[in-house]
Amino acid sequence: SKAVTLAQREIEDNTKSDQSEQIIADYLLLELLHWFKNSFFTWVDSPPCSLCGGRTTIAGNPPPTSDDLKWGATRVEAHRCTQCQSLTRFPRYNQPSKLLETRAGRCGEWANCFTLCCRAIGFEARAVIDWTDHVWTEVFSNHQQRWLHCDPCEDVCDKPLLYEVGWGKELSYVIAFSCDQVIDVTWRYTAKPEEVRKRRQECRENWLIQAITALNQKLQANSPKERIQLLQLRSFAEMLEFLAPKRTDQQSYGGRTSGSLAWRQARGEVGSTSNNRCFVFEPNENDVANKKFRLRYCASTDTYVHSSDDMHHEKDELKGWDNYTYQIDSIFRKVEHDWNMVYLARTEGSANASLSWKIDLSKTNLSVKSLSVFASTAIYEDGQVIWTVKGENGTIKSWAAGNEIIECPEVCDCQEITLSAILSGGKGSVAWQHTQLFRQSVGDKNEYLLDIQINLKNN
Fold it and tell me: Could you give the residue numbers annotated as active site?
């Protein structure tokens, strides 16, 4: 896998050979997150009807049965089928072993079962509860000697500002729980500590500190001295981390992806639909020497390749579709787990969307000799995608969506090129799915459905 390859490369570059197992463990964690999200656990807004398989809606909270309580489900939801009107029970299980069987739920079930999986393969993991209603996991990295934020619902690792910056949450208390320690980790998850302090009104801060200290003393009463000292050292390191100012401009954050759009909107966790990163591609030394620039994108692996050769090295790979765009408005990467397909699409509920990539040759003495674009597009109903290539002199080449290689002589002699796509149209509540960019099978890991090729010439 990609993670194994990267781990091997880091091990080769690392001068401390005794750290190889720790490096592999970090990459194993990333693979575990991805597997859990995409292959193992299922998100449930409303369960399908247990009789006819139809769509259901929430209809109340019946009392738990003795069997429900046996598996920690003190809360049960009833969902009524919109077709046959029968009721389907949805116990909210808390027992991790039961969740290995059901493999379904919302963030509580996801974090509960993922934490179990982490511990089962040897990671130190702890559950993290956000008092504004979310749950995730933290895993200790022996290689990095710090706790890593892991959200299995989002397939995200080490992005602690995701909730405040991406989802727009107004955090107050974030507490981590393990078998032998409780820690107030709120300050890992905020870049606005003063605002958070004003919202912490549930109890006096001194009382919270004393309560956590007393609880830790009870949890560690029978722990070996060495273990207690290790936990104290880690706590001290965490306090130093919490004091360091947080920066929000180094990573890509977005709104929540798990759960239905209506559910996320009701919770105020959709985040901003616009993201103007203004990333600009520039030719590298090989491009200049060969007088060729080529950029490809594979939606399956969510990876760009900046290399003029069909065969490329890992250093030519750029991960994350939205990390290397010039502008984005209401676009996200959709993975269809039932059909095993992946593509870029409009965000749910949006009538229009756009994105663009920019290439700048101005730092060289080269300009465009010829330019071609292959941008595969899937259109359904009356959806519409318009592609545009524009040069800095205002020259434009536009075409409707298709699956052909498009030559763009209009931008010859230009040094700044912007490729844009505008998505619109479609019918009904799923209109956003009627315009799809780079649709391909999840297994097509070597197929590039965006391919920009530029032959260069001296000015």
Answer: 107, 134, 151
